[in-house]
Write a structure and sequence with these properties.
membrane; transmembrane; 65% helix; transmembrane helix
Length: 63
């Protein structure tokens, strides 16, 4: 399963436990941080590819 869609298959109205242990909370925060890092790095790669394509286009245009 993709890291971006993991956990989206649960229904939104499901009951949550009243208290979450510290270890479970730490695991949830770690998963959230990993997802955020994944999105940021995907955005960085996309930006780099767009910049490279633009640079090649300009180089060929002036060459």
């Amino acid at each position: 399963m993709s890291i971006l869609t993991h956990g989206l298959d649960r229904p939104f109205g499901c009951e949550r436990p009243a208290r979450i242990s510290a270890a479970a909370r730490k695991a949830q925060l770690k998963d959230l941080a990993l997802g955020a890092l994944t999105l940021l790095s995907m955005g960085s790669v996309l930006t780099a590819l767009i910049a490279l394509k633009t640079a090649i286009y300009v180089w060929h245009m002036h060459g």
